[in-house]
Specification:
28% of the residues lie in helices and 45% in strands. It is of the alpha+beta class and 168 residues long. A hairpin with a 4-residue loop joins strand 4 and strand 5. The protein is globular and about 45 Å long.
């Protein structure tokens, strides 16, 4: 049975900043509570393959997803290419909708087919994790933006004097 779930949250931040953060898989551990790790495996223009390990109803699951970034539409689609054993298919999208210069609505939509005996398990996991992810995004957005600004602020060139054994 195909199931569709839609979740959303309103955030007081620019849509451009939010979309930039959603594109960066490397910070998902800090951003999304159920995520144990997320890593980009390949990238080709606007397409990427990522690997994720996350808790679903307290159990660790691992999968790979293909993501496509539609920058002009502020949308990221995803589809599991190596799903875990409890689902036959899962795909969805992140949609970032500007509501003003500093107000944004973020949608997280899922469509999936669960293995019959795991339907309730997957329904609970998608419901719980989607809410946690959206709440995590809202709660962490200003901290992440501040750390990114600190990280990217300097344009100075640094020269290291190195011997074969040590850099000073």
């Amino acid at each position: 049975m195909k199931t569709r779930k839609k979740h959303s949250i309103q955030i007081e931040e620019s849509s451009v900043n939010i979309f930039d953060i959603l594109q960066d898989v490397n910070i998902w551990n800090d951003l999304f509570k159920p995520t144990i790790y997320a890593k980009q495996l390949t990238i080709d223009n606007n397409k990427e393959i990522i690997e994720i390990a996350a808790l679903s109803n307290g159990l660790l699951h691992r999968w790979q997803s293909k993501r496509i970034h539609f920058t002009d539409e502020m949308k990221i689609t995803f589809e599991q290419i190596k799903p875990n054993s409890k689902i036959e298919m899962m795909k969805g999208e992140w949609i970032v909708e500007p509501l003003g210069s500093k107000k944004t609505k973020v949608y997280l939509n899922h469509e999936y087919i669960a293995v019959r005996e795991y339907q309730e398990f997957i329904d609970r996991a998608v419901e719980k994790n989607s809410k946690l992810e959206l709440e995590g995004l809202k709660k962490s957005i200003s901290q992440i933006l501040q750390s990114k600004k600190r990280y990217f602020r300097s344009t100075k060139k640094i020269t290291l004097n190195c011997s074969k054994k040590i850099c000073i």
